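FAD-dependent oxidoreductase 2 FAD-binding domain-containing protein
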Amino acid sequence: MVGSGIAGQVAALSAVEHGLSVLLLEKTDRLGGSSAMSGGWFAFSGTDEQAAKGVRDSCGQFFDDLLSVGNQENDVALVETFLTYQSDTYNWLKGHGAKFGELSISSGQSISRSHLTAITTLLSNLQDRFLEGGGDTRLEHRVTRLTRDPDGRVSGVVVELPDGGCEFRARAGVVLATGGFSRGTDLLKIFAPEQLAAMPYGATGNTGDGLRMAWKLGAGLADMSHVSGSYGSHPETGEDFHELLTAYYLGAVVVNQAGRRFTDESQDYKTLGAEVLKQSGGLGIQIFDSRVRAMSRPGVPLKDIDALEDIGHVHRARSLRELAEIVRIPPEALQETIDRYNEVVSGIRSDELGRKSLCNGVGDLILIDAPPFFAYPARTLLTTTYCGITINPQGLVTDVDGAVIDGLFAAGEVTGGFHGAAYMTGTSLSKGAVFGRVIAQTAASQIDA
Ligand SMILES: Cc1cc2nc3c(=O)[nH]c(=O)nc-3n(C[C@H](O)[C@H](O)[C@H](O)COP(=O)(O)OP(=O)(O)OC[C@H]3O[C@@H](n4cnc5c(N)ncnc54)[C@H](O)[C@@H]3O)c2cc1C
């Protein structure tokens, strides 16, 4: 198992539960990768939390939403596999320490489907159970190469250590769960040069090693043209605090440094990320009033306005003019923008940018007229890449012609195909978990056969 994020840890523990002996190799000196930095939102349907809130969801609606967000470019076989196992995986995660509390509608969803859990607690539970089950974890073990038997089957890995190197053989196969390449400047230069202007984020180990290793063996690649950062994180976002605010889904608008709106803010935050990169300074400023401010959810990622005001990243003013001066945009332009927007909300005019809802077709627009007013300047953050090597529905890597590369599996952000053109919030963690379990099942059945 190469990589210790959600995909690697779920695959590792599931494989142990299937009776396999598993070695988990992690390049950095800490476990968890981007998964440990994440908001902890998992997308599932048909859950207890949805039932408790009267939310009627179905696999059919989930399928439609995934394909709609993905612009119908998704690998349908992977989406169907995901939907077949998502409910079972949700229950498995609950049985392994996930406590889904908050339920929310998020980017790309037509219904509340994002379930929040304390992700670092979940990851450490998975690790504890993996070790209790006889698994072996090694930190600072960077896998640099895949080895193959004479018949071409992937049979092991070469590892670089702080003081040398070594080789491990793998009877049931090698699983690449090495995450994306949001930190991989060389790969970004090839596949998404425009994203070099975004703020690099995600785990420091996510430089695309797994993608390169599989690519070298002829693996196919999917969704490579759809790398997009997410909007909006403050320009001074730090490494240890996940800062991304989506006040626009609560009722805020986003303006550029000229004080003008430039896009429909109800779109998914990766589409917004691409739009914001085109603005001067790569900056989009979220503007809202006391109504939206009152919807802050302390401790809830994407909605915790309190925490961002406490650290001085959200600015407050009694009037729009004063607010504009604080964030250095022309006051007249901002006033005019908000006046026009309020006319849209009041039904006096239709929005020239096409906004009709708060988020993805859901929720009525609300006026921005109740002081005090607030501003959150934010940029596009490249947290993830969501594209990569092709796999089949059993989690085996396929080559450029679609043939399986024997002995090589992949799960999580290193893989492409599932999301298509864009990502629905919560589906990266849930996809990593679902395919991690699928891989364990495939590997165990191949050993038994
Ligand atoms: C700030 C932030 C918030 C997010 N919020 C959400 C959210 O709420 N919901 C959601 O679904 N998604 C979210 N995402 C995206 C999601 O977290 C990731 O896409 C997902 O966690 C990836 O999981 P993974 O297991 O594939 O990879 P990771 O969790 O990134 O793990 C990959 C691991 O592999 C290791 N590795 C890399 N190369 C090697 C090598 N050569 N040898 C050994 N180890 C190696 C890395 O060091 C890393 O630890 C967020 C991402 C970020 C950055």
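thats it. The chain has 14 helices and 19 strands. The mean pLDDT is 96. bye
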